Amino acid sequence: MTEAVRSGLPPTGDVAPIADKIRIEGLSYRYRRRGREDVVALDDVDLTVGRGEFLSVAGPSGCGKSTLLRVLAGLQKPTAGVVRINRERRGRPLVAPVFQEYSIFPWRSVEANVRLGLDAAGVDRSEARRRSQEWIERVGLAGFEKALPGNLSGGMKQRVALARAFVVEPEILLMDEPFAALDAQLRKVLQEELLAIVREHTYTVFFVTHNLDEAILLSDRIALMSARPGRMRRIVDVPFARPRSAELRKDPEFVRLEEELWADLKGDVETIEEVVR
């Protein structure tokens, strides 16, 4: 295995291999604001994610969850600390992000949006079309291959974004509240779809959410973050075997765990509300 290193400073010398898929050590991030005090979004964060693990990060608004994901994606450089990622196969994308805002190109058809990463990687056109069609059908968009995003509902746009991430077969899926903008019914449908996909394919998933119900249903572990500056408050093992279905929500242990997690976060959320008032 080789290792990708992302840090605030260039690495020097050899780095020791890591057993985990992702290891975050002493990570801090400050948003610089000209003429005003810096905003400390993350402070001394340590976290590991195992290969094939589904880890959710939950916490109050503004705690740095999305900033942490963007650092993993290579979109932002940390102010301090290091991120180490085990790359297992050259030629396979290391990460593929899915954001709440869909992030699909309005001038490209559904098929062209889904195929985008394959085209960029130089995959043979016929193979790219075959793989794209497979995932278009998998996410329930068959018949809409030539449609432009302007003619799609919000839920359909998010399905395009999901298919575009899955089709490139990344080692790590980075998902930033991908279902937050959807109505409750469609959210549950796509949660079920994600459970099925993760069951069939070996992905490491780093999933940001503010929804504790969603985190418990989907995850192997949940990382709870404190209010800004974001720090790791607690890592919780989710005690339910896979495969899972939406029926799990009726389990008394599921309800108990959700109440326990909410009790842990409630103080931070209430403090933020008081500050806003």
From TrEMBL:
Residues 22-248 form the ABC transporter domain. Transmembrane segments: none annotated. InterPro entries: AAA+_ATPase, ABC_transporter-like_ATP-bd, ABC_transporter-like_CS, ABC_transporter_ATP-bind, P-loop_NTPase. Keywords: ATP-binding, Nucleotide-binding, Transport. Coiled coil: none annotated. This is NitT/TauT family transport system ATP-binding protein. Pfam families: ABC_tran. One of its GO terms (molecular function) is ATP binding. SUPFAM superfamilies: P-loop containing nucleoside triphosphate hydrolases.
